[in-house]
């Protein structure tokens, strides 16, 4: 790999699921599983661990949006409860599935860029 080449912006690389070092290799193998390493530059992905971070951000973002929409719908239209269940249920599932992979990519790319790792006793 050309080391003089600038690193891609971590948020952009993470959102696209691309390698945070070269910006070209794929980070994911499947929906949420990291590949062992980058197929272009060989960056080891085994050390990437975003933990519960993506789930936390997905819950927060989706929760605020869906609850806000439900309140607005109730105040504005007063729909029956089945409309709330249908809209909130489908939006919660759809938005969660749409956001979890890009957010996992962003957190992993930020972890690599900022050299974040487990704390150790010396
Ligand atoms: Zn790479």
Structure description:
The chain has helices at residues 10-16, 53-77, 81-113. It is mainly alpha-helical and 122 residues long. It is elongated and about 60 Å long. The two termini are 33 Å apart. The model has no long low-confidence stretch (mean pLDDT 93). Keywords: Membrane, Transmembrane, Transmembrane helix. Pfam families: DUF983 (PF06170). The chain crosses the membrane at residues 55-75, 81-100.
Q: Quick one: how many beta strands?
A: 0
Structural class estimated from helices and strands: mainly alpha
| Distinct ligands | zinc ion
Largest sheet: none
Instruction: Count the domains.
Output: 1
Question: Which value, in Å, is the CA radius of gyration?
Answer: 19 Å
- Poorly predicted tracts of residues: none
Binned, the helix content reads 40-55%
Strand content is under 5%
Termini separation (Å)? 33 Å
Shape field: elongated
Count of DSSP helices?
A: 3
Global mean pLDDT: 93
């Amino acid at each position: 790999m050309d080391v003089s080449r600038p690193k891609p912006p971590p948020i952009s690389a993470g959102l696209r699921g691309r390698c945070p070092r070269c910006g070209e290799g794929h980070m994911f193998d499947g929906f949420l599983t990291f590949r062992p390493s980058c197929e272009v530059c060989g960056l080891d992905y085994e050390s990437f661990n975003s933990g519960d971070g993506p789930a936390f951000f997905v819950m927060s973002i989706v929760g605020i949006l869906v609850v806000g929409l439900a309140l607005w719908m109730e105040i504005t239209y007063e729909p029956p409860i089945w409309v709330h269940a249908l809209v909130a249920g489908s939006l919660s599932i759809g938005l969660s599935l749409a956001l979890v992979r890009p957010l996992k990519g962003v957190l992993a790319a930020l972890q690599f860029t900022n050299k974040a790792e487990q704390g150790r006793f010396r």
